[in-house]
Design brief:
CATH architecture: 3-Layer(aba) Sandwich
Order of helices and strands: EHEHEHEHEHEEEEHEEH
CATH topology: Rossmann fold
Radius of gyration: 16 Å
CATH class: Alpha Beta
Structural class: alpha/beta
Largest sheet: 9 strands, mixed
Number of strands: 11
Number of domains: 1
Number of helices: 7
Shape: globular
Helix content: 25-40%
Distance between the termini: 23 Å
Bound molecules: NADP nicotinamide-adenine-dinucleotide phosphate
CATH superfamily: NAD(P)-binding Rossmann-like Domain
Strand order of the largest sheet: 3-2-1-4-5-6-10-8-11
Length: 213
């Protein structure tokens, strides 16, 4: 498969690109800084230069892909405006590009709390509102979507065991390794199409947990 990961230098994105490339997939990562290209090549991925905020359309990057993944984020240090231009605007642009170019599959890294953004405190409010609106847009897009809402991300080593829940409202940690492994499984097995689920570290092997969605 040819997969285009938007936010290709992100911590989860690099892990996912590495997993895809190791299995012989064409793993393309969209980055806005040429200085990051070697990090993508080091995991076997193909860097694609583009900017989610400043490029009018992402069609040229998405064209030819079998699936797209939204793994970008403005980050905790950013202001409210960039939550709108990256977390919402970038995700919307990616969905539009998928539709324009005939790419059916869209996998979104969302977040716990996006089901109730009004309950969030401080800067989490604008972030979760942006995530909620982006998720709504993708759900209404007609694409074959999967919305993955991880808990608090950690850099602990992955365990390959998770807790996946379509009932929303939980909390807990999850290693980025395991988020990447779940995204990889969702993409390569076409699991969880048209589903939204929360993801935490847990006791259930990933394939088994996804089969129950
Ligand atoms: N932290 C948590 O506990 C948590 C929990 C649930 C969900 N999440 C979500 O999970 C996502 C992925 O996590 P992560 O740790 O892998 O994120 P990350 O390492 O912060 O990666 C985000 C990536 O987005 C890229 N990006 C920002 N603006 C861009 C633009 N205009 N064009 C292209 N790329 C752009 C950044 O690139 P630059 O280097 O160019 O800025 C960065 O590589 C987060 O963004 C967040 O929305 C986080």
């Amino acid at each position: 498969m040819d997969i285009l990961v938007a936010g290709g230098h992100g911590k989860i994105a690099l892990r996912l690109l590495g997993l895809l490339a190791a299995q012989g997939h064409t793993a393309r990562g969209l980055i806005r800084s040429p200085a990051q290209a070697d990090d993508l090549r080091a995991v076997g991925a193909i860097p694609v230069l583009g900017d989610l905020e400043n490029d009018e359309t992402l069609d040229a990057y998405v064209k030819g892909a079998d699936a797209v993944v939204f793994a970008a984020g403005a980050g905790p240090g950013s202001g409210d405006a960039r939550k709108r231009t990256v977390d919402l605007g970038g995700a919307v642009k990616l969905a539009d590009a998928a539709r324009n170019t005939g790419v059916r599959r869209y996998v979104m890294i969302s977040s716990i709390g996006a089901d109730r953004p009004d309950a969030a405190a401080g800067s989490m409010g604008p972030y979760l509102h942006a995530k909620a609106e982006a998720d709504d847009y993708v759900r209404a897009s007609g694409l074959d979507y999967t919305i993955v809402r991880p808990g608090s991300l950690t850099d602990d080593p992955g365990t390959g065991r998770v807790r996946i829940s379509v009932e929303l409202g939980s909390r807990g940690p999850v290693p980025r390794d395991d988020v990447a492994a779940v995204l990889f499984a969702v993409l390569t097995t076409r699991a969880a199409i048209d589903a939204t689920f929360e993801l935490f570290t847990g006791d259930t092997p990933i394939a088994e947990a996804l089969a129950a969605v």
